[in-house]
Queue: 2 jobs
Job 1
Amino acid sequence: MIERATTRLHVETQINGENTDYLCGPEQSLLEVLRDVLGLTGTKEGCNDGNCGACSVLMGSRLVNACLVLGAEAEGQEIRTIEGLAGPDGLHPLQQAFLETAALQCGICTPGFLIAAEALLDRESEPSEERIRFWLAGNLCRCTGYDKIVRAVQLAAERLRQAGQLREMEVPT
Amino acid sequence: MVGTRPIRPDGVDKVTGRALYGSDIRLTGTLTGKVLRSPHAHARIRSIDVSRALALSGVKAVVTGKDLPQAAPDEVIDLGEGAGKVKYLRDNILATDKVLYEGHAVAAVAATSAAVADAALKLIAVDYEPLPAVTDVRKAMQPEAPSLHGTLTPDAAPNISGQVHHRLGDPEAGFAAADVIVENEFTTETVHQGYVEPHVATAMWNADGQLTIWDTTQGAFSVREQCAEILSHPVSQIRVVPTEIGGGFGGKINVYLEPVAALLSRQSGQPVKIAMTRAEVFRSSGPAPASWVRIKIGATRAGRITAAEAEFAFEAGAYPGDPCWVAAICVFAAYEIPNGRIDGFGVVLNKPSSAAYRAPGAPQVAFAAEQMVDELAERLNLDPIDFRLLNSAREGTVRIDGGAHGGIGSIECLEAARAHPHYHAPLGRRENPDVSPQPHPTTAQPPPQGGREVDPSPSTGEGDAVAGGVVPSAEASSSLRRGRGVANGFWVNAGMQSSCTISVSADGSVHLVEGSTDIGGTRAAIAMQAAEILGLEAHEVKPVVADTDSIGFTSLTGGSRTAFATGIAAIEAAREVVRQMKERAAQRWELDPEEVDFAKGVFTAATNPTRRLTFKELATQLEKTGGPITGSANVDPQGRGVAFATCIADVEVDIETGKVGVLRFTVVQDAGKAVHPSYVEGQMQGGAVQGIGWALSEEYVMDEKGHMLNPSFLDYRMPTALDVPMIDTVIVEVPNPGHPFGVRGVGEVPIVAPAAAIANALHRALGGVRLTRLPMNPRTVLEATGLIDR
């Protein structure tokens, strides 16, 4: 007779800006919690062993593979997933750039790439091609050959810089 | 419309995470299915005892091969891509008498949770009698090799499962007339398509016998037909609902989990979902076959090929089925060769049953043949592109397989490659990689003089990339060597059957229902072709990929057929809509329908051009003029156009470590007509990078007993963003006369030439060393240069 562990952990966290709590088993990954407990299926599973990046999410400012993080580790954290990237005003500049430059084909890796690219642009406003390739090397894409993904990130970075400059100009000196 | 770059209709769902893929399907009460797989590469199954698993609390169903209907030994089915034995199809789903590869499914359970399902698998007792395994294609061909199925073809060694033999002209006389003859043997390893989404299927078998399968697949109808055969269940009782598909490349055509989930659902009365782990995907789906290839080519001093000979053997994997026949068409298809011989063999051995992977069979033979073509050019002191042009196939060329080329873009691709700045630039990375050249709208300009790179400053050593010998990089003392190589790729493409239905909405937009699953942007390419006919904007045609009950039969998404064949279905359905709309305009104007013209989205009376109605205006009046309008088309187009692509590769190799890097890569490809150029470029870039992975790092590493040692993305080693440069593209457009807009399939051919182009570049970088084995990883390089022993 197999007895499933009855212990459930109560986890309080913030997901995409909303206070959230859930019960999870001590062995459940954050990926399982997001997809199976919370129904946030935008975060994808490609390998479940940290080698494809399809489940990339932000934990605070850290870019992590949700399959390698326990659900319990989200306690007290701020989690950001693909579902939180677009705001009420529309798509995030990265999402818009991916669409315009055809930086996706099948789309299964796209949420992970967008989150990873967001983590990069949070840190650096003008990353070089090499820097973008280095930063995105934890995310596998089998369709695009990466060319259009790198260009989409460059385009979004440029637009974000321009938007930032406009905001600065609006500030009275 | 055709030739523009609108945003794809399914784009927003895919960048926001809302698109539903195979594992995102959640039905109430779904059980978790898991599969027990063989630890042996070859063994007889003495018995399977599932009683303890069935008794476990939470287990709702347990199935083995005995739960599948038993096929007569010689019962054969044809699933559109060649006939196969029903027994093989079923045995691959759940083994009965023998397991033939590590990871072969032997039993499956459905349980209330994954943990219970895992526990149940451990309670299934399988008594195996291990048998000797064979995993090398040349060893498996020998008469004394361990036999998988007994003799498969008459007068051949037991494991030989298929043969192809072609002869043209007089090969002996052809070689006798040659001044130079080159010959070599090559091998390639088993590789995987590497789609990021693992296989996953959900099935619900209702009490009334109606079976519904939600599936990530390249062909919903293909899944329906396979499940009908495997389960002996009528197609009318099976509905397949295709989800979004996270990559396929040929690997999501065959069924693996679907019939098993169906059996478990029938037994349990509940929906059952089974997902493969990544290791299961590597071990238990269908990789692309390893190969052994021998090529011999002769040419005159003037540079004309007089004869060619190819002999090759492809792994079929555990069951018969290999790409020999198509490899035989492709191997010399780029050239006009008067005399030749091709002998190909398919061989069963103890690896997973092989499946299609993007231009199946062509990259393996191109790796060999395009190196020998290059070798001839070098021996004759000719530029490699000039030599290929001198011998290029053209319309009317009869191939060694007996087929003749129609209108083809071989010469145009070669000329565009020769004219490309890359071919004349110093070796290395493109200077301004952030600026991409615009796609070439038409065929290339005449090539500049010389046609090959001339070293601008020999002292830097960055010179004479194409024809040169050892080319040291910037520092003479460095262990880095650079070289440039080119290669040609050919692929046959496919036509096959497609259906489309277009209905007109009151706001003047249309809904397009299609049966082709969309792997890489075909919704856009198909909708745009309908929009072109209807005079609408791209966003005014709303495409939907339908389930098998909701659209006419449509063959799988494969063979580079979808933008071509389903595009033709969309064009014909749109023309039917126009025909019916003309009737409504005629009715309003009290004319005959023949007296109504339609152009650029506007209906006009032929007799009085001031009487006009736009498509939108007429659409708002359908209710008053006879009701809704739907146009449908079912097509089986025969005018597929074949595909050519030429690659230029710059590589750098460290002669001390054997590590190879790709510095610059250009793909020139004939698209016939690029419907959505961005997605055509995407196919070229994606195919090129898969080819780079095949060339440099990817392989199934097997131990002597047939166990795969690297079944993870970490160890299998597909290229990351950091491993490759920007991939420059040039779209050449030589129209395909078999399509109203000239469209050719574009998906597969870009994977054919990269490994050969890289090998040719390495040959120059390494001062004349030929790399005859894939992957060209550090070990292969260092063994070839003699730095380490084989």
Job 2
Amino acid sequence: MQKVAIIGGGIAGMEAAGQLNRLGYEVVIIEKNNVPGGNVANWDRLFPHQRPAGEVVRTLEHETENATIIKGKTVINFEKSGNICRMELSDGKVVTANAVLITTGFRLFPAEKKEEYGYKIYDNVITSADLEKMFSSGKGIVTPSGKIPEKIAFIHCVGSRDEKVNNRHCSKVCCATAVKQACEVKEALPESEVFCLYMDLRMFDRHYETMYHEAQTKFGINFIRGRLSETSEDNSGRIVVKCEDTLAGKPLKMTVDLVVLMVGMEGEGNRKIAEVFKIQMGKDGFLDAADDYLNMTQSSREGIFLAGTCTGPKNIPETIAEARAAVSDIHVFLNRQQASV
Amino acid sequence: MKNEGKRRIWQEYQKEIPNDHYFYVRSCIRQNFFPASEVMFLKIMKDELGKDIYENEYHTTCSGIGYHSDVVPLETTMTVVARQFALMTEAGYENFAASCITSFGLYSEIMHTWEEFPEVEAKIRENLWKATRREFKTPKHLAHASDIIYKVRDEIAAKAKYKLVNRHTGKPLKVVEHIGCHYSKMFPSKGVGGAEYPYVLTGMVESWGGEIIDYPERRHCCGFGFRQYLVKANRGYSIANTKKKFDSMEPYHPDMIITNCPGCPYFLDRWQYAIAEMEGKTYGENGFGIPVFTYEEVASMMLGYDPWDMGLQVHQVSAEPLLDKIGLPYDPAKKYQGLHREDLGKPVKPGCLKVY
């Protein structure tokens, strides 16, 4: 039986594993963490319909029941000899396969790099990922200072579209995540005042505009077009936020109880993968596909395929669709390989 | 507040500061605003610590204020700066120390420009040669004088006779640190601690026993901001900025302010008088202001110099409440005596701001 190795057990990897199994291939998933699901596993609910992220992950995990999953390991060496791909893992074990699918995804932008935003300095500055953990805990929305927040500011584009941190790209999903999280906060704390400080609102997909519309009409969330310039802490531990309201053309300063930084996607975590597999990576840290228009699932090296956010920011449906597309390409590739043998 | 977060940033922004052998250039305006600060820097470095710091009487303005006010073209400014470097080269030094923050920022900007655009440096070399027949090497190390005091802060602490501690309560003094904008805002990597949470003055205060206050308008301009003040019509904007800072720091009850820029101590000091006159508002204890010091003055206080020898009598806000807290003795009768103990006459007391 021909075998495919999938590097990364996030949603793209798991979806591809299920599809490859159904096509009759043996699949091994190599996942660096001890739990599968990637970044989605750290989320509580997903836009646009508030579906629990755990439900999505569990459904995909079920798809992988016929695959071998190696957890807590990374590939440290890769060699290709003829039709055989040989991978040495971090524990010294070796995995061989006829094709490799890389689904290593993204890493969240480390918000502390935006020093002026005060993450890991001011107690009441958190990230969107921290807020999801708070949602998941079921303990309600409480600031790290232990207060039920009355005023909350969501800061869009943290680490995205920002030359200062060398990330020119739009992370695509943060706007919708901010609107989702703002609505969730308002739902839990109806008396609170919630602000979204944005550059543009990129509500690019079906249902997203409706969500944004509801955020304003049903939840009364205040959207302010202006990029955060800095945060500071007052003597009660509240956060002073400074930005420019670019629609009003005025500087704006307000004091809030909680600041949520909408951290974007970074491809930087793929650098090691690009080095080990000797495939091309863009300056932005995302892996380069063979053709940005017509072949997003083929890497720069034959027999190594790509899917999901390792090639750039995507939402979940796009990631799943690309995983399936990669499976189709792998299937064609392996059929040709077998025919040539 | 998580101090470990700041410490992580401080570790990232450390620069190489030579321990010795500097060509020192004074500031145009500091010599008028706080005339003894530069004298005290030289005294501490040479007499107390035995360092080799050389200055040259042919040094001129760097023309930074003119450049930032759009009255001196950049090419002219660069040629003036090239001449300063030529003086350093002729004196046999490789380390350049600037007293002024704007000069430091300007030197950083010009050296960076020359690295990026060697053809500009070549043109400036040609300009300097035509104008003065001088040649130069760019400094191996560029430091602001506060970088150097930061570097030797523990040596000063070891020799200190006084600490930034309230002798009546035994508690550390609460200190506001204010960094000049041109220190690291343009080039965060050139300043100790970076631009957002600079460490250069914080490090001194920590070494000397004080405690830093982080207040909401900490990063805000002191109110000098060249165009705010140099254009007379903008001066309301200047004082409004200063007032914003004082209103923001007031709830923390700071004992003192430490600065590393020529303009900042001047504006934070003098505008306290103007705010008091305009609004009847004072920010220190019992109707006094919050004393504002240069880092050289603070170092001198730690070492036990006579307050009047370090020029504290030219401050608008009385330094005495702070001197009383740290226990540094002073003779009120000698406050307004000149260098040769001649009577300079007492200034008129302000109407609102209490002074000694």
